[in-house]
Amino acid sequence: MQRTNIYLSQDQLRLLKHLAAAENKSVSDLVRQAVDEFLRERLKESSNWQAEMDALVKRVRSRVGQDISEEGIEGDVRAAKKEAREARNEGRH
Q1: Is the overall model pTM greater than 0.90, yes or no?
Q2: Which segments show compositional bias classed as Basic and acidic residues (predicted)?
Q3: For residue 66, which phi and psi values (nearest 5 degrees)?
Q4: Can you tell me the distance from the alpha carbon of 33 to that of 19, in angstroms, rounded to the nearest whole number?
Q5: What is the pLDDT of residues 67-76, one digit of tens each?
Q6: Rounded CA gap, 46 and 73, in Å?
């Protein structure tokens, strides 16, 4: 394991310490557990994204023919997804 530093709010640290004591674990254990869960979810999303992208490329290809490359279709979809995400994020601020 490697040591790292993170910055937490006072409330975050207080709650982590409370949970750690209640579960008889260290704050570090809880943080590692949270990071593991976060990474698992992100990797699952990534895996789902690729499967969805493959299905989408197949559907698009069946409609437009073979003259558009898979990379071109995927690039267009990624760009559209990025644009939608940015628009959604702008609405949150």
Answers
A1: no
A2: 75-93
A3: -90, 0
A4: 13
A5: 777 777 777 7
A6: 18
